[in-house]
Specification:
5-stranded antiparallel sheet; 19 helices; about 15% strand
């Protein structure tokens, strides 16, 4: 009718919300109708879809029931068309034609002796045709593994490959196995292995249930802090054995420069607890940090904690979901704390909050290979006095002189900047050496905006009803933004962008 603007009023809440993408069409039939409706709506410049009460839709209801409700004696005729198939089942008419095939020159030579005009092509054709013969008007090739291989066109070969790959006896094997199996079944065409590779690459089942690659996909990106207590990593430990006061969690913070560690036991992990810990243990003790790096837990990714960081000008960075390597410093400290507590506790697992300060003291006074110093010395300019120096006096405790000690402490504070500079250089060298070893095992994979990918199924996204037979990958998703090399923001087929960017480690290219 040539209309460019359209307003649709429907009393069906399901249909209206599915078109407005507020509801998801899970039924296959409804999804097909929804796709067809959206395709038709693209023909209009402007359209509006709204839900109205059923009482206001009586006129449209009457029109829809007119065919069955009208009296035959009225004298009007309502044409009724009975569709043989649903309106979403599109039909196309194709002209039948015979495309040129790789077998045509060989058939012409074997049946009628026809050769190309070019002498070089004719010589090549005679040499190739020596391996072929005609049996019952069918072209066969003499094979090495089997006596006769039936020659197929690429179109016929596509059917053969699909039947062997995903048919009744198909096992969704790899490209090389599929090509060998096709040859052993007695079929041949020149591009058999290439077509098998393409078919396996684009098979949805093979992609969704494919194995998860273990190779590293991106070079290591070291994080270097510019000065002490400027950059902190936050993470949670737990749940742990319940202790006195129902304490079963711990929040941990580590400074990226000095490796100084702070931790506090918690009964509940809420945004208020996290905010209080950052205020008391970081801001009030060591000043305002430049940045905080944490994972995507709801306690950190909350409006309350974001407001605290925005209030004091703290940059808040989140690690990629399901990729703890993005916050590896605090993850490493978590392992050390848990290992230390296990060795100290023995069978008294519920006493871990009482021994947590001892574990932190041990960590902060231990030598770090990355800096060549202890966190305590980098933070305060001198080594801490530990209990063993009291019971078995060392040189500095046995010959302690208050005045001389005060002078030496002052001198240490004057030299602490140089001391920290050397530690920073050693730390940078350590990270470079680690990066070289890490990058030597990288098999680089990168994506571009517009690529479609599959995302690895995690415990958070796995369907519990599928059990061990569930897919390894889900999707597809479209890459909409490259946040940095190896980190991408994704958008689903429903048009909604995922909340956090994902690392290449959990993604793989999707062949459409």
């Amino acid at each position: 009718m040539g209309a460019q603007q359209l307003r649709i009023c429907s009393d069906s809440q399901l249909v209206v919300n599915q078109i407005l993408t507020e509801f998801e069409a899970k039924d296959t039939s409804m999804a097909a109708y929804l796709t067809h409706a959206r395709r038709l709506l693209h023909h209009f410049a402007v359209y509006q879809v709204q839900q109205i009460p059923r009482s206001e839709n009586s006129h449209a209801d009457a029109l829809s029931r007119l065919a069955s409700a009208i009296d035959d004696n009225v004298g009007r005729h309502v044409p009724i068309e009975i569709l043989a198939r649903r309106s979403t089942a599109e039909t196309e008419v194709h002209a039948v034609r015979q495309d040129p095939s790789w077998m045509d020159p060989i058939l012409s030579y074997l049946t009628s002796g026809t050769l190309p005009i070019d002498k070089a092509e004719a010589k090549t054709l005679r040499r190739r045709s020596a391996r072929y013969l005609m049996l019952n008007q069918i072209l066969y090739r003499r094979g090495h593994s089997l006596p006769m291989l039936r020659c197929m066109t690429p179109q016929q070969g596509n059917y053969v490959l699909r039947e062997i790959h995903e048919g009744a006896c198909g096992d969704h094997s790899g490209a090389r196995s599929l090509a060998f199996k096709t040859i052993r079944q007695g079929y041949y065409w020149p591009t058999l292995h290439t077509d098998a590779t393409t078919l396996v690459q684009k098979c949805d089942q093979c992609q969704c249930f494919g194995s998860v690659p273990k190779l590293l996909a991106e070079p290591l990106t070291p994080i270097v802090s510019p000065w002490p207590f400027a950059q902190w990593g936050l993470d949670l430990i737990g749940p742990m054995p319940q202790a006195k006061g129902q304490l079963k969690y711990a929040i941990v913070a580590v400074d990226y420069f000095t490796k100084w560690t702070e931790a506090e036991p918690l009964a509940t992990i809420t945004a208020t607890r996290v905010e209080h810990f950052v205020w008391k243990n970081i801001i009030c003790r060591y000043g305002l940090p430049n940045a905080i790096i944490t994972d995507n837990e709801k306690q950190f990714d909350s409006s309350q904690f974001r407001h605290l960081c925005h209030r004091f000008g703290i940059n808040l960075f989140f690690a990629s979901p399901a990729h703890p390597q993005s916050n590896g410093q605090v993850e490493a400290i978590n392992k050390i704390i848990k290992k230390t507590l296990k060795k100290k506790l023995g069978a008294a697992r519920g006493a871990w909050p009482d021994l947590l300060p001892e574990a932190l003291w041990a960590i902060n006074t231990s030598y770090r290979r990355s800096t060549g110093e202890t966190p305590f010395s980098l933070a305060f300019g001198t080594e801490a006095v530990v209990p063993v120096e009291i019971n078995a006096p060392s040189c500095r405790t046995a010959s302690y002189n208050p005045e001389q000690n005060e002078t030496l402490l002052t001198l240490n504070l004057d030299l602490i900047d140089e001391h920290r500079s050397h530690a920073q250089l050693r730390n940078a060298f350590y990270k470079q050496r680690t990066s070289r070893y890490y990058d030597s095992r990288v098999r680089r994979r990168s994506l571009k905006v517009g690529n479609w990918v599959l995302r690895k199924v995690s415990l958070a996204t796995k369907d519990p009803n599928e059990g061990t037979l569930g897919p390894s990958w889900e999707g597809p998703y479209e890459v909409v933004t490259v946040c940095r090399p190896g980190t991408y923001r994704l958008r689903g087929t429903d048009g909604q962008t995922l909340g956090h960017p994902w690392n290449i480690e959990h993604l793989k290219y999707y062949y459409k």
